[in-house]
């Protein structure tokens, strides 16, 4: 912070103060968090390399998986190394610019991940409900258009949150009671009215994530209806196994966000450290589970990884 001649102060950096009520959480959380981080980075990297090197996997469905893995890697790198640096080395300081950049990447990439889930649900809907049309509908051009849509929609619609927060007047307090630069955790340090920031965050989050979740639910409802009509032996079980695991993962991604919102609403009854913990875990647990559920459980990717391992040993 710097103090001006008129006695006012300007915040140049923030201090991330994790787990105010229960500082001991940092010790026992650091090990599983670091293991989850390594798992997320390793699994997503292997998935990306496998899809890149295996020609048989150069198909739209696997390109969408690649997009999901890239988003997971960026989200993990944006949040977890800084959290671990706080836990292990007490490096709580984060610059003004870095804080709002982290805020933007978190908001943008979480929305992009939700949007990618929606596109993947549509991919499965076409594959199961309209299999004859699948090759003509889900093409490489479709993936390019979907990627542009995912990037443009979320990059543009989430940029206002960090810009408005950065433009607030921070006149002294600079200790953020969170492990990350979440919008409201930072904004409440301001001397200005943050009602607009709060409403924008709420409206933007529910518009983007809510609309994605509705479309995902509709897609899987239509898939379930189509699957139950299948007559081929084993087809129902296979389709339900694949789509069921996907839907559970999407539900987990959405549910943990909902729990986070509810704990904020009921913050008088819940320790303020609980939403902080959920916020951190939400950036690493889905990233660790996504490549396992979407990738390793897919037979073609499993075979691709095995072929690459054999080539590596030869």
TrEMBL record:
What's an example of a GO molecular-function annotation for this chain? Answer: olfactory receptor activity
Q: How does it sit in the membrane?
A: Multi-pass membrane protein
InterPro entries this protein is in?
A: GPCR_Rhodpsn (IPR000276), GPCR_Rhodpsn_7TM (IPR017452), Olfact_rcpt (IPR000725), OR51/52/56-like (IPR050402)
Task: Print the keywords alphabetically.
Answer: G-protein coupled receptor, Membrane, Olfaction, Receptor, Sensory transduction, Transducer, Transmembrane, Transmembrane helix
Domain G-protein coupled receptors family 1 profile, chain residue ranges per copy: 43-294
Q: Which PROSITE patterns match?
A: G_PROTEIN_RECEP_F1_2
Keyword Hydrolase tagged: no
One GO term of the biological process aspect? cellular response to lipid
Instruction: Tell me where on the tree of life, at the top rank, the source sits.
Output: Eukaryota
* Gene Ontology, cellular component aspect: plasma membrane
**Pfam families membership:** 7tm_4
Entry's transmembrane regions: 25-49, 61-88, 94-121, 142-164, 206-228, 240-262, 274-296
Instruction: Indicate where this protein resides in the cell.
Output: Membrane
Q: What is its main location?
A: membrane
The cross-references to PANTHER family, in alphabetical order and at most eight, read: OLFACTORY RECEPTOR 56A3, OLFACTORY RECEPTOR 56B1-RELATED
Q: What is the documented function of this protein?
A: Putative odorant or sperm cell receptor.
This one is known as G-protein coupled receptors family 1 profile domain-containing protein
Q: Which organism is it from?
A: Suricata suricatta (Meerkat)
Q: What is the lineage of its organism?
A: Eukaryota, Metazoa, Chordata, Craniata, Vertebrata
UniProt lists the gene as LOC115272536
């Amino acid at each position: 912070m710097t103090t001006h001649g008129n006695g006012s102060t300007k915040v140049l950096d923030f201090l991330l103060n994790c787990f105010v009520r229960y500082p001991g959480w940092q010790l026992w959380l650091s090990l599983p968090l670091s293991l989850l981080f390594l798992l997320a980075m390793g699994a997503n990297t292997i998935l990306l390399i496998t899809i890149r090197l295996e020609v048989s996997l150069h198909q739209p469905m696997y390109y969408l998986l690649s997009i999901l893995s890239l988003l997971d890697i960026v989200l993990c790198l944006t949040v977890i190394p800084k959290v671990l640096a706080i836990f292990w080395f007490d490096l709580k300081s984060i610059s003004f610019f870095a804080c709002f950049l982290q805020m933007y990447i978190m908001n943008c990439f979480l929305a992009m991940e939700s949007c990618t889930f929606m596109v993947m649900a549509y991919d499965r809907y076409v594959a199961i409900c309209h299999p004859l049309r699948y090759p003509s509908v889900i093409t490489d051009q479709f993936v390019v258009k979907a990627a542009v849509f995912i990037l443009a929609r979320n990059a543009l619609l989430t940029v206002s949150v960090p810009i408005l927060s950065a433009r607030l007047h921070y006149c002294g307090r600079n200790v953020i009671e969170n492990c990350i630069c979440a919008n409201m955790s930072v904004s409440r340090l301001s001397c200005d009215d943050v009602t607009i920031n709060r409403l924008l965050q709420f409206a933007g989050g529910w518009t983007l994530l809510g609309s994605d979740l509705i479309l995902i639910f509709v897609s899987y409802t239509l898939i379930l209806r189509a699957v139950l009509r299948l007559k081929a032996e084993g087809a129902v079980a296979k389709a339900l196994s694949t789509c069921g695991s996907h839907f559970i993962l999407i539900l987990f991604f959405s549910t943990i966000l909902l729990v986070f919102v509810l704990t904020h609403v009921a913050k008088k009854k819940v320790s303020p450290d609980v939403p902080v913990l959920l916020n951190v875990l939400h950036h690493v647990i889905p990233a660790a589970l996504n490549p396992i559920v979407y990738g390793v459980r897919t037979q073609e990717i499993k075979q691709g990884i095995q072929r690459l391992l054999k080539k590596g040993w030869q």
